[in-house]
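# step 3/5: fold
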Amino acid sequence: MLPFLSAVVLRDIDAVRAQVEAYPADDLLWRAIPGLPNTGGTLVLHLCGNLQHFIGAVLGESGYVRDRDAEFTRRDVPRSELLQLLATTRRAVEDTLDRVAEARLATDYPEPVGGLRLQSGEFLVHLASHLGYHLGQIDTHRRLATGVTRSAGAQSIAALPSARKVS
């Protein structure tokens, strides 16, 4: 697998974890904010389901069975459970991406997505972008729900494997 793609996806899963940890109370993860379609907790459930399905189950044959409806209907899941779900998702993604050969990226993704055939590598980049998009939404929700506007320290470029100090 392309190590940089794996590094970005894993970094962003870790960034979601940092966001969840930055909420000062569990109930704030589920606070509805006018104008925002989803709570932070809902977005965490959705991202975990999405990544475990498309990367873990389809590419990695993990056996994970997605319940997309539950990703958007479950409420008041404790932070500890969300953090455990993120850890499980991270392991599934890392295990799968470590085993995907680079040549696999040029082949079709194993199943149609939204009625479309896609190249595996292109779809994995889409999944990374989707993760980053929702990570930003979680950050916005956290700031509005808590009134704390400081960064959670997420998405650092220093976390990328090639990052090194300039002398």
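# step 4/5: annotate
Residues 3-146 form a domain with the Four Helix Bundle (Hemerythrin (Met), subunit A) fold (CATH 1.20.120.450).
# step 5/5: archive (pending)
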